[in-house]
Amino acid sequence: MTSANSTSATTILCTCKQTRFHISDRPNYRELDISGLNITIVPDTSSLSSTTTKKGKGKAGAEGTEILSNADLKLKAGARYALVGRNGAGKSTLLRAISEKLIPGIPEEVRVGILQQTGIPDDADDDEWKDGGPETVGQTVLEQVVDRATAKGEVEKDIKQLTKGVNDPDPYGTLRAVRKLKYERMQKKLFVLDKDASLRSGARGLQARKALVEFEKEVEKAEKMNDQPEEEISAEILQAEIQEAADMLAELELQVEPTRLADIESQAKKILTGLGFTDAYMARPANTLSGGWQMRSNLAVALLQETDILILDEPTNFLDLLGIIWLQKYLEGLEDIHPTPPTLILVSHDRDFTSTVCTDLMILKDRGLAYFHGDLPTYEAAQAERKLYLTKMKDAQDKQKAHIQDSIQKNMAAGRKNDDQNKLRQAKSRQKKLDDRWGMQVNAKGHKFKLNRDMAGYHESAREAIDIPKDDKSVSISLPLPPDLRFPGPLISLENVSFRYKIKGRPAHLVVPTLQDITLSVSMGDRIGIVGLNGAGKSTLIRLLVSDPTSSTSGSMSGAIQKHPRLKLGYYSQHAVTSLLSLGRATPSLTALSLLMSETAGVMEEPDVRGLLGSLGLPGRLASNVPLTKLSGGQLVRCELARLLWSHPHCLVLDEPTTHLDYETVTALREALRYWPGAVVLVSHDRWFVKGAVENRKDEDVDSDGEANDDEEDEEEQKRRRLVYKLVAGKEGGKMTLLDKGGVSQFEEGVEKKVRKMMAT
């Protein structure tokens, strides 16, 4: 079976095995069982340059990139899967193939809902949401979410079309309206049948193409009936079609029945509230939302839809901790919301969120799909334990094999010397057993190996060799050492700082300050975490830390901010990826290497710049040949990190740096920040990341380098401050308090209480 889907740049080719037998008449659409799945991305050859296609590598690239090869896609009804794989492994391609039903084994009747990261939205700062702003005519956020989730607009359009015909004094007006609507529905069904015929091959493909040809004749007949003269329509046909129009109208009106829509709207309000929307913002025109808030509304649509398979690709990217925990609880309780909860496929870099929500892992690795019942830390621990077990088994067998081989050699020598044929036959028999029956002593389930059960068929050896899984090439991030300050003192200090934005038409003294009486000191080696919900003022505080507030015309500040005269600051903005994309669009040929070369002119040579980019995961041609607009979100994050690290900063101020990164890179950055000599000020909703980078909490799933330097680390750790502050917006302005009774966990517990209250109402 094959399938193809084309875009302007690539084509997705899917093939799989499919049974020739008819399955149950009542299939469970929440399950998938597809064997022999192959997915290949083929670039559009017309988009390749002539110079590229002449080269061998260009030719190989034109043949396609294989994402899956002979894989098994198996989903259990109602299970919650975390799709795990490195950036570039093909997770988004697989999700797209499922959602668009490009895989022949997925029935057309399966309802698939998807939240897809189709781009990097330009998200407005939560702290700068003010009253007023551009107002345009259109649907409100709530209306749009309900409309998109229920197709209410399409139903109302059909109702309007039929009602106009029914109310037409000319009886033939009703007939024309119902025939037109039936023809439009047939066109949609024709598209599905055409797609089905293209997906199938063999006997089923022949059957699908016959069905397509037959239905095309019906569509052609329906098209002619739309132009049928009135004198050719009998009274019986006219009456029958008028009755059909009345029945269709009643069925459509039932779908938009006020009571049913009221229940859906009530559920939509609960979802939007959980995702951070207030009543005022639900009533805003939907087209005034910024990119990040539009993604939240898209998530609300996906959750509100009735689906068999629900796909969520990075749903936590633009949520604060309140929204993350609410979504976590919502997905955990799908069984209570739906009598038949959808099967969930989730992609997220947030380890705490994923480990709590998902019941199973789907691991995309080496062009195959593997499955594990449990969370990611348990899987990593199980893999490490299995590798240790196999290593010990192989070492023991190697020693035993060497001993047996030595005894065989001695027996062979003794047999030849004394012309003892019995010893020679015995030695040859033992050698054959050693060659053919040496390997795994247990099967995949850990039971004693049995040849007829565990290796049926013909094989070169009677047992599989002990194959110790190789570790993936680890992601590493190396942070440059900061230069000497020459004289001591805090890097940044804030004393009784307050800040309020200017709002047009409102006196300054009537504007509630965003920040109120903030006192903070950052010294070398400090780890400062700042947590808080959206709108608490986190980004405003960050901007005050990294810039000169007196030059800002958007607001007024009181209090004092002082910085070390020799301070070198590295600032990662939550909008860094969007800014890089804007630079790339302005200069389409701009690459990571050319950008860094221009910014470091006279300071760094090209080999040094390449070394820096390579150490952050942008090696070779990826840095020099691929334009910024073609890099993934994770690769753009690496480019931005290179932009702020080349100057060897004393202090890193990081505002949501983990967005768009995969598990391995988030882990690498977390470990790199643990003991870096400089100071780190971190804003992030990723609890696991903050706990490790700021609070230095070590988890069982994070490898340790051993205990050789524990004494040295303890001495350094005593000098290092690790503090977590919470910002809370209030009537008198944003206040900052130190979480000295649990840090991130303390904040998390408070948010969970709020979520429980929200979900109880």
From TrEMBL:
InterPro entries: AAA+_ATPase (IPR003593), ABC_tran_Xtn (IPR032781), ABC_transporter-like_ATP-bd (IPR003439), ABCF (IPR050611), P-loop_NTPase (IPR027417). This is ABC transporter domain-containing protein. Keywords: ATP-binding, Coiled coil, Nucleotide-binding, Repeat. Residues 212-255 form a coiled coil. Residues 701-716 have a biased composition (Acidic residues). Residues 48-391, 492-730 form the ABC transporter domain. It holds the Pfam family ABC_tran. The keyword ATP-binding applies. The lineage of its organism: Eukaryota, Fungi, Dikarya, Ascomycota, Pezizomycotina. Residues 412-435, 699-719 are annotated as: Disordered. It comes from the Eukaryota. The keyword Methyltransferase does not apply.
